[in-house]
Amino acid sequence: MALSNRQARWLLLGPAGLWYAMLLVLPLAVVLVYSFGERGAAGGYQPAFTLAQYANLATRWTAFKNTLMLAPLGTVAALLIAYPLAYFLAVRVNPRWRTLLLVLVIVPFWTSILIRSYAWIFLLGGRGIPALLADLGLGDWRLINTPFAVLVGIVYGYMPLMFFPIYVSLEKLDRKLLEAASDLGSPPWRSFVQVTLPLSLPGVATGSMLVFILLMGEYLIPQMLGGGKVFFVGNALVDLFLQSRNWAFGSAMSVTLVAVMLVVVTLYMRFLKRIGAAREDVGLM
């Protein structure tokens, strides 16, 4: 018996849709319901309908401020480091060495983020880079347990996620376009701005969203390199759910974080869409 197009569509999308509903929609719905409740006498959740948890969000403003400041800053920093590296490997380097260099970029992912964070604790601690700077007569620097240490850790940890989408976009770039631009008298910098950069924007958009979304929920790096002094929302949520056992307040913070991420990602996608539309208009002129 042949299936209609509609039946075939539901048959293909049904398992994925059910999986999506059970592992994403349903947990979010539970968190949303909990966010309107209250903390039980012994902790946990007590059914209620109140906005008190959302009214108390200002008490955790520091966690939101650090997250909203360091997550975009870390995303931009990772982009500024990953793009030149991806451009060099995809466009400039000899193909015979490309695979080896790509493996070297992947190698840090073979080690636990916990071990890599401990390595940065040593490097940024008193016996690491600060001691070297002091020996060179450059003053007494304190790097560990600062926003700078957290920024270094998140850029180092998430840079490969930014690198590979950009590399794929650049690796697929048609070299004939660059040759044509050169033949028409375009200098290298103009060819990059008008040809290479626009064609690599999909990779930039994908890498930026991957890094930004993950950084908004980051917990381990601020905990280890921030020393409890640079809190992200993820650290606050761990405290509320596991230490204070205030599930209602933790749920309200979680819902607020998801809402902020949705707004930022939506604005970012609209911005990219406008850039694409502007490029098409210029191309038609």
From TrEMBL:
Protein name stated in the entry: ABC transporter permease
Family indicated by similarity: Belongs to the binding-protein-dependent transport system permease family. CysTW subfamily.
Family matches, as CDD domains: TM_PBP2
InterPro entries in alphabetical order: MetI-like, MetI-like_sf
Organism field: Paenirhodobacter hankyongi
GO biological process: transmembrane transport
Transmembrane regions listed in the UniProt entry: 12-36, 69-89, 101-123, 143-170, 191-215, 247-269
Keyword Cell membrane: yes
Coiled coil: none
Localization (cell): Cell membrane
GO cellular component labels: plasma membrane
Keyword Ribonucleoprotein applies: no
Keywords: Cell membrane, Membrane, Transmembrane, Transmembrane helix, Transport
Domain ABC transmembrane type-1: 64-268
Membrane topology: Multi-pass membrane protein
Domain of life: Bacteria
